[in-house]
Write a structure and sequence with these properties.
4-stranded parallel beta sheet
């Protein structure tokens, strides 16, 4: 299913596709950033306002609204979890020059902290995983083509292992955040 989750209609289509199905976990791995982000081409002053709104809508607003609307589906699970993929750039004093992306990742962390409180009565565990560069096809291509410095990115299997670990924990435990940094 394709949906533009930067819009209310796109979020509604996701909710409608889930219907009344039970969800054991909501895993929000979506993320977008500005044109030219993480390259020398990125220029905050040239970044259009619509791009800022789009990045924040996808990275911050959509996870909030999807979690709210899917709470009814999650509570039918014995150990419901909402897991969001953030970024190290959303941590205090770790911002990158990409203003909208950094702001959206800070916002995601704040939203997750508030959701943990707001959903306390529903017993939904809320976690944000904040990784550095992950070895996705895009990151590997950026390294090979010289857009990123030479590095060993975090294996995707490590992100998956962290998610699996969270899902295996008892319903007595909540993990607020996991920060995954590359070794120097």
């Amino acid at each position: 299913m394709d949906a533009d989750i930067s819009t209310a209609e796109g979020i509604r289509s996701v909710i409608d596709s889930v219907g009344e199905s039970r969800l054991d976990a909501l895993l929000f791995m979506g993320g977008v950033w500005e044109e030219g982000a993480f390259t020398e081409r990125y220029n905050f002053m040239q970044s259009p306002d619509r791009e800022t709104r789009y990045v924040i809508a996808v990275n911050t607003i959509a996870p909030i609204e999807l979690t709210k609307q899917l709470t009814k589906n999650l509570v039918s699970s014995n150990n419901p979890r909402a897991i969001f993929i953030g970024s190290l750039s959303g941590l205090d004093n770790a911002a990158s020059i990409e203003v909208a992306n950094t702001a959206s990742k800070f916002g995601l962390r704040g939203a997750a902290q508030a959701l943990k409180i707001a959903l306390r009565d529903y017993k939904i565990g809320v976690t944000v995983i904040n990784p550095g560069n992950v070895a996705t096809e895009e990151v590997m291509a950026d390294i090979e083509e010289g857009r990123f410095e030479q590095q060993v990115p975090i294996p995707l299997t490590d992100i998956i292992s962290a998610i699996e670990w969270i899902l295996k924990l008892s319903n007595a435990v909540n993990i607020g955040e996991i920060n995954m940094q590359q070794k120097d």
